[in-house]
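Run Cytochrome b through structure prediction, thanks.
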Amino acid sequence: AKGASMFFICLFIHVGRGIYYGSFMLNETWNIGIILLLTTMATAFVGYVLPWGQMSFWGATVITSLLSAIPYIGTTLVEWIWGSFSVDKATLTRFFAFHFILPVIITALVLVHLLFLHETGSNNPSGLNSDSDKIPFHP
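Sure, done. The structure for Cytochrome b is below.
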């Protein structure tokens, strides 16, 4: 739990740095980063449910029930995530699967994020373009 907390602290510092330096103006890189943040939060949530204690059960019930507020598809989406009409063993099985699949998606998103970052370049505190100071990594 401490490792996950430290990871999210670093992630939030990274997002804060991006906001402070104006990195949100690089739309593709920023949008992939936000999708990456949300996917990481989803992975942490399904991992929180896996011990299947009282806190996990009610956390899964309350948080997934929030999706029922989405117009038209909310209740269907909640029933699909639950695997039945309430949180039970099918939900736990699905959350195990999500917890296994989402890190693969996160890895792919990190690679795409780095690809866009390589194309656009990163921001610096001075806000100056540092292209003249760069040494090419490959020809």
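The chain has five helices and no strands.
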